[in-house]
């Protein structure tokens, strides 16, 4: 009999908490909910393992991370199926198989930047170097939308830099993260990576624990603020990737048919459940009807359904709480006079949290569907007459994770991009993150960056070593 990953990680029959498939309502498995005592034990184990892990040296740690990437690829289909069942995202499209593949790719990407000591002054009189040391044990708290991939974003740079990691996954998608860690740990020493599934109290205890040197968090602004407060007493380092409400601006020289697919997937990747998805789109009067028409056609024809069915590329909203938020925002927009071009009418008898891909036109910029992050499959399209007004509207919220500009003119697009208040501005694409390019938010969307050499260095302690020339080598 072949033992599955799920059998390794789930709670024994009759114990733990059930996790259900948001597409079917079927039970996926049972998660063993940890206690504060379990968390404390995991942190002590990680603290004991960290000096040995750091002492391996960078080259050996790189070998282990690449071996972990190999292990993920060997279990890719099993991981993707579990992810699809627990999170709801389809196997195909930019979804479950894509996410598992990204886990392996991001692990490898974390091994490539040079993090050797740097000589920053050597003028014959003074020599100064910067060395990058491990921090210790890092706590990672992840979300439910990309549970595996974002876990790798958190753990890979920390492991590369010699830290050990204790992770607390979302209560909605713990099995995916437990399974991922089970695979990665086949390439790591004991105690280097531990997952502690639990509720809010476990996350709060992780953020406040004196044995944790840094917290990495991806999730809502409100939860991020609570974690920052919890971490303050012990002056922890934090990297916060918080909520966004990303704006896209279409310029008046764009071709609606040419940009429609990029716009659609910028908004509807993972059925709209992505922090850096396109969540409000500004279109000039001259192109407004054409862009609305192109996006409505795609929304009406892109297949949505149970994730294990190979034909589907849009899935359910992961949990009913988020479903209700999306449904309420669309309903209120319609009541206010906005025009729902497609979608907006879910089947009340449908099994699962399926909300149709929805395009909303003729909507005011101050409408709640525009001003609040919907985090689901509903895109408001706002008409503008003045580009300056569109830029002001795009910058008008106290969030700034990502933004995008759509134009065939590189110079025009760049000029507008540099006026937008966001951590990343894409041109003729949206949400196209790259492991080589630093990624982080502005304003209330967080601080600190992930990815690339800059992201690695944020997982370390910079130590300056300075003396007279010739006093050390």
UniProtKB/TrEMBL annotation:
InterPro entries found in the cross-reference section: Ald_DH/histidinol_DH (IPR016161), Ald_DH_C (IPR016163), Ald_DH_CS_CYS (IPR016160), Ald_DH_CS_GLU (IPR029510), Ald_DH_N (IPR016162), Aldehyde_DH_dom (IPR015590), LUC3-like (IPR044086)
For this protein, the record's Pfam families field holds:
Aldedh
Name of the protein in question: Aldehyde dehydrogenase family protein
Q: Where is this region: Disordered?
A: 10-29
Q: Which GO terms describe its molecular function?
A: oxidoreductase activity, acting on the aldehyde or oxo group of donors, NAD or NADP as acceptor
Pinpoint the Aldehyde dehydrogenase domain residues.
17-463
Show the active-site residues. 241
Record has Oxidoreductase as a keyword: yes
UniProt-listed Gene3D superfamilies: Aldehyde Dehydrogenase, Chain A, domain 1, Aldehyde Dehydrogenase, Chain A, domain 2
Question: Which family is this protein grouped under?
Answer: Belongs to the aldehyde dehydrogenase family.
Give the UniProt keywords, A-Z.
Answer: Oxidoreductase
């Amino acid at each position: 009999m072949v033992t599955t990953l799920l059998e390794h990680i789930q709670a024994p029959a009759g114990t733990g908490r059930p996790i259900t498939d948001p597409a079917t309502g079927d039970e996926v498995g049972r998660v063993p909910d940890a206690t504060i005592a379990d968390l404390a034990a995991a942190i002590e184990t990680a603290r004991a393992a960290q000096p040995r892990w750091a002492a391996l040296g960078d080259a050996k740690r790189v070998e282990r991370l690449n071996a972990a990437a190999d292990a993920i690829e060997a279990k890719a289909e099993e991981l993707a199926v579990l992810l699809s069942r627990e999170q709801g995202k389809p196997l195909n499209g930019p979804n479950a198989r894509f996410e598992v593949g990204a886990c392996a790719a991001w692990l490898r990407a974390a091994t490539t930047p040079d993090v050797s000591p740097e000589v920053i002054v050597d003028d014959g009189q003074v020599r100064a170097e910067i060395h990058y040391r491990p921090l210790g044990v890092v706590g990672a708290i992840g979300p439910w939308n990309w549970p595996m991939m974002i876990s790798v974003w958190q753990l890979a740079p920390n492991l590369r830099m010699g830290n050990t990691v204790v992770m607390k996954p979302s209560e909605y998608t713990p099995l995916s993260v437990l399974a991922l860690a089970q695979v990665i740990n086949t390439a790591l020493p004991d105690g280097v990576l531990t997952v502690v599934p639990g509720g809010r109290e476990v996350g709060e205890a992780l953020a406040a624990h004196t044995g944790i040197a840094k917290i990495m968090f991806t999730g809502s602004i409100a939860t991020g603020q609570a974690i920052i407060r919890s971490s303050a007493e012990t002056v922890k380092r934090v990297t916060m990737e918080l909520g966004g409400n990303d704006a896209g601006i279409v310029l008046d020289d764009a071709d609606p048919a040419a940009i429609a697919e990029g716009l659609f997937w910028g908004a509807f990747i993972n059925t709209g459940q992505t922090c850096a998805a396109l969540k409000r789109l500004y279109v000039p009067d001259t192109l407004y009807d054409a862009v609305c028409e192109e996006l409505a056609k795609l929304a009406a024809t892109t297949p949505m359904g149970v994730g294990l069915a190979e034909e589907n590329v849009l899935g359910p909203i992961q949990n009913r709480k988020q479903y209700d938020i999306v449904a309420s925002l669309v309903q209120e927009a319609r009541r206010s006079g906005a025009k729902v071009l497609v979608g907006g009418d879910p089947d009340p008898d449908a099994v699962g949290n399926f909300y149709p891909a929805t395009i909303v036109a003729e909507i005011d910029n101050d409408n709640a569907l525009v001003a609040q992050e919907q985090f689901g499959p509903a895109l408001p399209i706002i008409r503008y007459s003045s580009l300056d007004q569109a830029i002001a509207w795009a910058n008008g919220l106290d969030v700034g994770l990502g933004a995008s500009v759509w134009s065939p003119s590189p110079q025009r697009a760049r000029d507008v991009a540099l006026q937008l208040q966001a951590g990343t501005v894409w041109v003729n694409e949206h949400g196209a993150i790259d492991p080589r390019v630093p990624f982080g938010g502005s304003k209330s969307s967080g601080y600190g960056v992930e990815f690339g050499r800059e992201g690695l260095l944020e997982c370390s302690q910079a130590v300056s070593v300075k003396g007279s020339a010739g006093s050390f080598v």
